[in-house]
Design a protein that fits this description.
Blueprint (H helix, E strand, L loop, with lengths): L1 H10 L3 H18 L8 E3 L2 E3 L3 E3 L10 H5 L5 E7 L12 E4 L4 E4 L8 H10 L5 E6 L10 H12 L5 E5 L14 H22 L4 E6 L5 H13 L4 E4 L20 E4 L3 H15 L5 E4 L5 H10 L3 E4 L1 H6 L2 H13 L5
Parallel strand pairs: 3-4, 3-13, 4-7, 7-8, 8-9, 9-10, 10-12, 12-13
Antiparallel strand pairs: 1-2, 5-6, 6-11
Helix pairs in contact: 1-2, 5-6, 6-7, 7-8, 8-9, 9-11
Amino acid sequence: MLYSLARPFLFALDPETAHNAALRFSGLAGLFAGKPPACPVRAMGLDFPNPVGLAAGLDKQAEHVDALAALGFGFLELGGVTPRPQPGNPRPRMFRIPQARAIINRYGLNSIGVDAFAENLRKAKTKCIRGVNIGKNKDTPNEKAADDYGYCLEKLYPHVDYVTLNVSSPNTAGLRDLQESAALSSLLRIVRARREVLREKHGRNVAIAVKIAPDLDDESLRTIADTARRERVDGIVATNTTTSRQAVLGLPFASEPGGLSGAPLRERSTAVIRKLAAILGKELPIVGVGGISSGAEAVEKIDAGAVLVQLYTGMIYRGPELVTECIESIRDAHRPAP
């Protein structure tokens, strides 16, 4: 209700300005949020109170952890974060396409750097499951990318429950090349070895997931699934934003470079989830993200093979009420028969 009143004012603002204002508004919205329904799920060695999480990209700097957790999410994925601070791409870099309930962004992994990010996590009071999306700095060559991911893992290890290796953002030149078999295998092997050292040091495990693009052909999907299984990662996040504009052709801002999210991504991401689930079976959990704007669409992702789901663009168009709607829909659709 509060968001429906605020949305016309937010949509009158530049999208990035509105994005930042909505994050500040989330603290107020959390005061009126009821207790989310119980719908526990175990995945990646973690016990989630419910399967509906926040997708990476909404709280890029981990500045609103307590406010966002109060909205009822079962987990938060924060970031993306890079080792060193970087400004990302120049503004404007975010564009709404309301006719399609979509957004194009080309932030370019703008980050305060992992040290400041970890300090924000340390200050957060809420005890919820925290994931962090980690990436490499723009000026780090791909052959050195594992150093950046490993450095982020080390700095964040005491403060998070899982990390997601972002190898699929379309807004960092060459990043998606890390999805190729040899590059991905090498990256996962190096990061997992660093995790073993950190697990011994801290006496706790932090799960490792990898986030993939929706624009992969079937052969590439099978290669990624086989690589993830072989390198014993803990989960796959499917999917990031798409570079395709087929679903928004002719609409204002459709030709802007960047990643497209929201309703036009839904079918594409669900198809990726379904294909991954057919390849992997129950061997690796899939986190489904892309175009969820209703409870029924969250259930669609679960039915396709996801164990957890994440929200981002749907929240911008629907508001915080979407969280509880998705939890209730998943619970009701998958309630054990009496």
